[in-house]
Protein backbone atom coordinates (compact mmCIF):
# COMPACT_ATOMS: atom_id res chain seq x y z
CA UNK A 1 0.00 0.00 0.00
CA UNK A 2 1.41 3.32 -0.94
CA UNK A 3 2.19 6.19 1.39
CA UNK A 4 0.14 8.54 -0.78
CA UNK A 5 -3.02 6.54 -0.22
CA UNK A 6 -2.76 6.75 3.57
CA UNK A 7 -2.04 10.48 3.67
CA UNK A 8 -4.91 12.97 3.77
CA UNK A 9 -5.09 16.42 2.21
CA UNK A 10 -4.46 18.24 5.52
CA UNK A 11 -1.21 20.24 5.47
CA UNK A 12 1.14 18.13 7.64
CA UNK A 13 3.60 21.01 7.94
CA UNK A 14 1.10 22.85 10.13
CA UNK A 15 1.74 20.33 12.91
CA UNK A 16 4.54 19.89 15.39
CA UNK A 17 4.93 16.78 17.49
CA UNK A 18 7.24 18.70 19.82
CA UNK A 19 4.61 21.25 20.82
CA UNK A 20 1.23 20.04 22.10
CA UNK A 21 -1.47 19.94 19.45
CA UNK A 22 -4.50 22.02 20.53
CA UNK A 23 -8.09 21.59 19.33
CA UNK A 24 -11.02 23.88 20.22
CA UNK A 25 -14.19 22.34 21.68
CA UNK A 26 -17.44 24.06 22.61
CA UNK A 27 -19.50 22.58 25.45
CA UNK A 28 -22.99 21.76 24.24
CA UNK A 29 -26.03 21.14 26.40
CA UNK A 30 -25.80 17.42 25.57
CA UNK A 31 -22.31 17.35 27.19
CA UNK A 32 -23.64 18.39 30.60
CA UNK A 33 -25.33 16.60 33.46
CA UNK A 34 -28.43 17.68 35.38
CA UNK A 35 -26.33 20.23 37.27
CA UNK A 36 -25.17 21.95 34.08
CA UNK A 37 -21.61 20.66 34.47
CA UNK A 38 -19.77 18.62 31.84
CA UNK A 39 -20.35 14.93 32.59
CA UNK A 40 -17.01 13.35 33.55
CA UNK A 41 -16.90 10.83 30.68
CA UNK A 42 -17.29 13.60 28.12
CA UNK A 43 -13.82 14.91 28.93
CA UNK A 44 -12.55 11.62 27.47
CA UNK A 45 -14.57 12.31 24.31
CA UNK A 46 -13.00 15.76 24.05
CA UNK A 47 -9.56 14.17 24.39
CA UNK A 48 -10.41 11.60 21.72
CA UNK A 49 -11.36 14.40 19.32
CA UNK A 50 -8.03 16.15 19.92
CA UNK A 51 -6.04 12.95 19.27
CA UNK A 52 -8.04 12.28 16.10
CA UNK A 53 -7.43 15.82 14.88
CA UNK A 54 -3.72 15.52 15.80
CA UNK A 55 -3.45 12.42 13.62
CA UNK A 56 -5.44 14.12 10.85
CA UNK A 57 -3.22 17.21 11.00
CA UNK A 58 -0.20 14.92 10.57
CA UNK A 59 -1.86 13.78 7.36
CA UNK A 60 -3.57 10.54 8.38
CA UNK A 61 -7.26 9.65 8.41
CA UNK A 62 -8.14 6.76 10.71
CA UNK A 63 -10.60 5.19 8.28
CA UNK A 64 -7.97 5.20 5.54
CA UNK A 65 -5.36 3.68 7.87
CA UNK A 66 -7.85 0.87 8.56
CA UNK A 67 -8.82 0.34 4.93
CA UNK A 68 -5.41 0.78 3.30
CA UNK A 69 -2.89 -0.31 5.93
CA UNK A 70 -5.06 -2.66 7.98
CA UNK A 71 -4.54 -0.94 11.36
CA UNK A 72 -6.69 0.76 13.96
CA UNK A 73 -5.75 2.65 17.11
CA UNK A 74 -7.45 1.87 20.41
CA UNK A 75 -7.20 3.21 23.94
CA UNK A 76 -5.23 0.85 26.18
CA UNK A 77 -5.33 2.91 29.35
CA UNK A 78 -6.49 6.25 30.70
CA UNK A 79 -5.74 8.12 33.88
CA UNK A 80 -7.69 11.35 34.44
CA UNK A 81 -7.64 14.06 37.08
CA UNK A 82 -10.71 16.30 37.21
CA UNK A 83 -9.64 19.66 38.60
CA UNK A 84 -12.37 22.21 37.82
CA UNK A 85 -15.79 21.97 36.16
CA UNK A 86 -16.59 22.99 32.61
CA UNK A 87 -20.11 24.24 31.96
CA UNK A 88 -22.58 24.68 29.13
CA UNK A 89 -21.32 26.95 26.33
CA UNK A 90 -17.72 27.13 27.61
CA UNK A 91 -15.11 27.47 24.89
CA UNK A 92 -12.41 24.93 25.70
CA UNK A 93 -9.03 24.04 24.30
CA UNK A 94 -8.00 20.39 24.36
CA UNK A 95 -4.35 19.51 23.96
CA UNK A 96 -2.73 16.27 22.82
CA UNK A 97 0.97 16.06 23.57
CA UNK A 98 2.83 12.99 22.37
CA UNK A 99 5.24 12.08 25.17
CA UNK A 100 6.19 8.55 24.11
CA UNK A 101 6.28 6.68 20.82
CA UNK A 102 6.91 2.95 21.09
CA UNK A 103 6.85 0.49 18.18
CA UNK A 104 3.19 -0.42 18.78
CA UNK A 105 1.87 2.38 21.03
CA UNK A 106 1.78 6.08 21.77
CA UNK A 107 1.64 7.82 25.14
CA UNK A 108 -0.09 11.19 25.44
CA UNK A 109 -0.53 13.82 28.10
CA UNK A 110 -3.77 15.68 27.45
CA UNK A 111 -5.33 18.75 29.02
CA UNK A 112 -8.79 20.29 28.78
CA UNK A 113 -8.46 24.01 29.41
CA UNK A 114 -10.65 27.09 29.69
CA UNK A 115 -8.49 30.15 29.09
CA UNK A 116 -5.46 29.57 31.37
CA UNK A 117 -7.19 27.15 33.75
CA UNK A 118 -6.64 23.40 33.40
CA UNK A 119 -9.97 21.66 34.03
CA UNK A 120 -8.94 18.08 33.40
CA UNK A 121 -5.61 16.41 32.79
CA UNK A 122 -5.12 12.92 31.48
CA UNK A 123 -2.54 10.35 30.48
CA UNK A 124 -3.65 8.13 27.63
CA UNK A 125 -1.93 5.13 26.06
CA UNK A 126 -3.01 4.27 22.52
CA UNK A 127 -2.10 0.94 20.92
CA UNK A 128 -1.92 -0.01 17.28
CA UNK A 129 -3.93 -3.11 16.40
CA UNK A 130 -4.42 -5.21 13.28
CA UNK A 131 -7.89 -4.26 12.03
CA UNK A 132 -8.90 -7.84 11.28
CA UNK A 133 -7.73 -9.56 14.48
CA UNK A 134 -7.38 -6.73 17.02
CA UNK A 135 -3.94 -8.09 17.92
CA UNK A 136 -1.12 -5.65 18.67
CA UNK A 137 0.79 -4.57 15.59
CA UNK A 138 3.63 -2.17 14.89
CA UNK A 139 2.61 1.38 14.03
CA UNK A 140 2.94 1.65 10.22
CA UNK A 141 6.32 2.90 9.04
CA UNK A 142 4.70 5.80 7.20
CA UNK A 143 3.25 7.10 10.49
CA UNK A 144 6.51 6.66 12.40
CA UNK A 145 8.40 8.37 9.58
CA UNK A 146 6.06 11.35 9.75
CA UNK A 147 6.63 11.61 13.50
CA UNK A 148 10.41 11.46 13.03
CA UNK A 149 10.26 14.07 10.26
CA UNK A 150 8.11 16.40 12.37
CA UNK A 151 10.02 15.95 15.63
Question: How would the blueprint of this fold be written?
Answer:
Layout: H1 3-6, E1 21-26, H2 40-57, H3 62-69, E2 71-82, E3 91-102, E4 105-114, E5 117-130, H4 141-150
Antiparallel strand pairs: 1-3, 2-5, 3-4, 4-5
Written account of the structure:
With 151 residues, this protein is of the alpha+beta class. The protein has a single domain, classed as Hotdog Thioesterase (Thiol Ester Dehydrase, Chain A, Roll). The protein has 4 helices and 5 strands; from the N terminus they run H-E-H-H-E-E-E-E-H. Strand 3 (91-102) and strand 4 form a beta hairpin. The radius of gyration is 16 Å and the shape is elongated. Residues 1-16 have low confidence and may be disordered.
| Biggest β-sheet strands, sense, barrel | 5 strands, antiparallel
Radius of gyration: 16 Å
Looking at the structure, the CATH topology is: Thiol Ester Dehydrase, Chain A
How many E strands?
5
Structural class, judged by helices and strands? Answer: alpha+beta
Report the order of strands and helices. HEHHEEEEH
- The rough form would be described as elongated
| CATH 2nd-level architecture | Roll
The CATH superfamily appears as Hotdog Thioesterase
Helix fraction bin: 25-40%
- Indicate the mean pLDDT: 89
Query: What count of structural domains?
Result: 1
Number of helices: 4
Could you state the oligomeric state of the chains shown? Answer: single chain
Distance between the termini: 24 Å
Strand percentage, roughly? 35-45%
- Within the largest sheet, what's the order of strands? 1-3-4-5-2
Contiguous uncertain segments of 5+ residues: 1-16
CATH class: Alpha Beta
Amino acid sequence: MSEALAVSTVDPLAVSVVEPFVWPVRVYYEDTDAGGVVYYANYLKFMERARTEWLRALGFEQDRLREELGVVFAVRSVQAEYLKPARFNDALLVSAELVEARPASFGFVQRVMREDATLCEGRVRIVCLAADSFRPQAVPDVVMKRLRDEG
